[in-house]
Amino acid sequence: MPSCGPCKLSFFHFRPFPVTIFTAIIYLALFIPLLIIHYVPPSPPSNDSLKKSIGVDLEDTWHTLAAITKKYHPYNSRANDEVRAFLVDRIQSIVDRNENYNTEIVQDNVVNVFYLGRSSVSIYFESMNIIVKVEGNGKFEGEVGDVLVNAHYDSVSTAPGATDDGVAVVNVLGLIDYFTQPSHTPLRTVYFLLNNGEEDYLNGAMAFTEHPMAKTCRIFLNLEGAGAGGRATLFRSTDAEVTNFFKRAKHPFGSSLSGDAFKRGFIRSQTDYIIFDGELNMRGLDLAFWQPRARYHTQWDSMAFTSINSLWHMFETSLASLTGMAGDSSYTFIAGNGRKHTGVWFDMFGRGFAIFQIGDTFIWTMCLLTITPFFLFFFIYLLAKSDKLYLLASSPKSNGPLPPKLELAGSKGFWRPFIAIALSSAAVIFMALLIAKVNPMIMYSSQEAVWACLMSLWLLVSFFVVRVAGWWRPTATARTWGIAWVSFMSWLLLLGNAVAQDKLDVGGLYFTIFYYMATSLALFFGLLELFFLPPTNHIYESLPHGAYDEDDDRRSLIAPSVDDRHNVTLTPEDDDEEGPNEHTSLLRDSSNLGRGRHIGRRPNSHGSLSIGATSTLPTIEANEDDEPDCSSSHLCAQRHFPGEQYWSRHLLRYTWILQALILIPVPVIITAQIGLIVGTSIAQTGADGNSVITGFLLYAIFTILLLLPLLPFIHRWTKHIPLLLVAVFAATAIYLLVAFPFSWNNPLKVYFAQTVDLQTGQNAVHIVGVSKYVRALVEENLPSTWNGVEVKCAEDPLRLGLQRCTWPGEMPNVVPGHAWQSWMTANATLVVGEEAKKKAGKRTVKISVNARNSRACRVLFDRKVAEADVRDPTGKGVTTPHKQPVSDDGVDQLRLWSREWNRGWDVEVSESVDGSGKGELEGTVQCLWSDANDKGVIPALDEVKRFLPRWSVVSKLEDGLVVGEMRFKA
After folding, report:
1. How many domains is the chain partitioned into structurally?
2. N or C: more exposed end of the chain, with fewer CB within 10 A?
């Protein structure tokens, strides 16, 4: 071979520098926009353009939010009445301005509903809902069903309710403004419901079920808040057909996985959605804010922590959805018409929206599970028939002069991807569990650090395994075997998806469909490039003359194992070297061996290396992109990677780019969107008593899923990224193990309540929180616990997984001007005479309850009662028993809600006189006070707010901030 000059490598060859740069760019190009979309809501157009295009003043809507969030306004507060009056006036002014005289405004002061809240709790509730009916102008033959839009205007007693549910409320006002304009009159009649009492057992929505206007509604849009800002996400939907309306949004956001989490009980809180879906059998959407949860139900759920961008995102998506619903002229949603299909849906970069029926995705899944492997195996069969299945070839067929054994070792890289995946995944899971053990709440404020730590660890372990394997036994099949293992594991995930779809009717694992499609397609191209190789029995003829010494047929055409250390072979270029002469150095010129990279080793005939008898084990060198000299660019393009099989020089040089573009983007996009939603959703639920171990394991699982597509290429990385990852892992691991987990921006949420015994005057303050922190938080920061005051802490009976600390506090002043003895009255008497005769065989007790400055009480029975009835002493309103208000095995608690102050209730309960019904009926009457807007009303709560450290914040423990109680017996 003639002497030759340096050869220029193409940047797109499968070499370390191009692979490192290309894969890093792909991941950065995907992660950066996904993170921006996840955390940053879109900006609205200018207010002037909005007023011209849709006739809605967004700035005025934002100012309205300020008006209704000045105070905490739970149902049981005077501020609640003020907000209700303001909203009615606001709606009336909108209707008058638009001169829409077909719009009806209803203040529901009539409906009283009595229903079963859960198995042993019955609830009596008096409605204070606001209903606005916008008449549609569509001409339909028969009933098509009306549309309902819902939000609740009450807040919890510890939050002004900016996003729960103030943004939704002012959005409803904006929607009323839009649809009452003459140019935007809907086809279907639209009802706008602002319900009161959602925060306490979804009472307002339940009351609406008994209102006559509810009977014609068939489609609904529920607007909710379970976080304090960000984007509004589609929490869940009843079916695929109604979810199609959400596709109209310009910036859709959400995944059906969240709906599956509700369906399977992983999310325990609920919204009004379950009332419209379960009680009224309507079909609709649940659109809600969902992050961050640390501010949810606290004083930081305020305008300071939301933005007009968040308001706009909910308005834009709800307007688009509602326009579709109200303009729908089909009969799809008539009661009993058409079958509902479970929907599988997700957004694409916050700009597009994909939706499928679960039946279709199941068929799709089954086809991929069966047909794709068959097709791949058929392809493998064709490769075997054409004698090009290098992946499984150990030696070519020997005919004639070929030596009896000539190794190709295509299967050499078979196990290393599996070992890399197993070890790196085990390391990530171990690290996640270690953090959960040492510093379990760190996820609360450091989600990004958790992601960075686990990702860097997975990459480091994977890189180390494949590079050590490549150093010990280099092979050109590492990429293809890596893709094959990733494809196989995605097939297993897809199988799990098929089971979930068929048995559980959940489609939230839809990402496995796209994951497997991408990996199997990448594998197809990996097999396809094998067709460009010569048959294995031609490999010997393709060797340069003299490259193989027939005296030693044991020499391999691949890099030898350690057992072959005595083999010495020549490079293809050795045959063209000039013979030794007087100018030849006594020492072998190392430049002929790859510019000094392999001193102490001699390359064999195909460019790999045999280890001499006195040589040391090879080391991984940095300059792997160096290429031997040659004068022909064609030969340069066919050069194989140092140390790998000689036949790999015949592989296509650019296939890896196509495989990377197929294998990485689609799985990463789909999986990262879900991972970010899941990670953000669970990160701060530890303060609610949820298991943090589950959260860390989910982080580990999604870390593995996000990085698996990178495995086939990681063995070509240069050392620079791993060195950076070492620093990232070390820094984040140390931080996650030792850092304090809470901050002002991510405060620990604790729960407050105060109980007062109205027979003895004793009171107790309760703070409930994470066991590790709550006692110290109370004893070190609250002055009322100092000076020898005993603080008792024990497991909380209401919020499992949390600890309750209790101590005597300052007496509240919830009924100004009245001593605590007169806050409430409760009388229990045995009913006798004619009334008792009507209930022969049963013992009937009448309990009269009244409370000053409150409209919420409850009656707790020591044993269950079989029947219960609640009467309004004033005779106002109509009480409607909803379905079965008392369960078959009785109830042990009645919850009572009144729309009027200082009025009270008459409760009659009956129990069987045989068996457990014998003897006096005993129990406890509790009345609630929830108004904390004025300082001094609940001094203990004022103290908590004033003295809690900046890294914590208080929320309400139950319906009442102060619970006054007394015993009864009859």
Report:
1. 3
2. N
